[in-house]
Amino acid sequence: MNTAPNPWRLCVAPMMDWTTTQCRVLHRLLSPSARLYTEMVHANAVLHGDRARLLEFSASEHPLALQLGGSDPTTLAAATRIAVDAGFDEVNLNCGCPSDRVQSGRFGACLMLEPALVADCFRAMQDAAGGVIPITIKCRIGVDDQDDDHDFQRFIDTVAAAGCSVFIVHARKAWLKGLSPKENREIPPLNYPRAFRLKANHPELTVVLNGGLTTVSSMAAALDELDGVMLGRIAWHEPYVLALAEQALMNPAFEPPSREQVVREYAHYVSTRLAKGEGIAHSIRPLLGLFQGLPGARSFRRVLSDGAPKPQTDPMLLFQALAAVTLTQAMTPPPKPTDPRDAAGW
User: Fold this and answer.
1) Is 15 annotated as a binding residue?
2) What Rg, from alpha-carbon coordinates, does the chain have?
3) 97 an active-site residue?
4) Which residues bind FMN (predicted)?
5) 277 annotated as ligand-binding
6) Which of 156-160, 244-248, 312-316 has the lowest mean pLDDT?
7) Is 53 among the annotated ligand-binding positions?
């Protein structure tokens, strides 16, 4: 399979209320190469809402994709033109979100039931982009009672015939009837072979796998079969995995920054946000899991969480959290050496 680096080899998924500009800046400090995605923004909101807030990003976030929701080709085309002018590197159409709000608006995962409409949307968006940036599709392997192979293949074939060459596949069927969005992240089981068969049947397509990739080894295994991997909640709960993935999957010469270094660099960014009159809480949230699994992680989170709501909080809060980690680690006894006789059953 193709293992050459490509723009989608390592990606971070669009996640509502999580992949804000603050989160993406943190992720960029950890991974210079990962392709980052915004939260899903409805095309109507881009046209009629607070565009400056919805499309805000920092120059450091590139390469950066805007994910759009919607099902009207004309509206999606207009939003795509705005995205091109704003400087995004890609526009991605959401055909995978299973929430009730998304279904009632006839976008997200329910679009998998209407492949011809998705093809029309894609063509309109691609024409609007004028070849300046790629238009991509993020989808599931099916919805409700659809056949995993036949209906998924029909969806891909229809949209690919319209010119789409990049599909980001969440390898789990979405159940629009009876399951919550949270349950749809775990039920039914992931079906990686379905994504692998898609690539085998369509070697000309770029296929990126999303869903359940939580370790570098699982990412590397997926890249033996596919063109790219997209990390979801693990990038929020344990963001340092991005630095490890960067080194293992993108650039072996990359030296992952220490967590302390990341906090110090991020503190400078937080200062710029505060200078604009923004509270610190939005910048603190993406940072909470940075020390996950290490001594001091709980102290780090507690200092940040307790300090964020207080008035007049400044970036020194981040250094106080670092100090709490150092103190905890200094007070943590080293692990006891393993007696080889234990392993031998003596």
Assistant:
1) yes
2) 21
3) yes
4) 14-16, 67, 138, 170, 210-212, 232-233
5) no
6) 312-316
7) no
Q: How many CA atoms lie within 13 A of 34 on its CB side?
A: 31
Indicate the range of 95-104, 313-322, 325-334 predicted with least confidence.
95-104
**Residue 64 C-alpha from the chain's centroid:** 11
Helix (H) or strand (E) holding 169: strand 166-170
67 is in an annotated binding site: yes
Domains of the chain, CATH where assigned: 10-250 (3.20.20.70), 259-331 (1.20.120)
Please state the rounded mean pLDDT for residues 4-21.
92
For residues 99-116, give the mean pLDDT: 78
Residue 14 is assigned to a ligand binding site:
yes
The residue from 11, 23, 95, 97 that is catalytic is 97
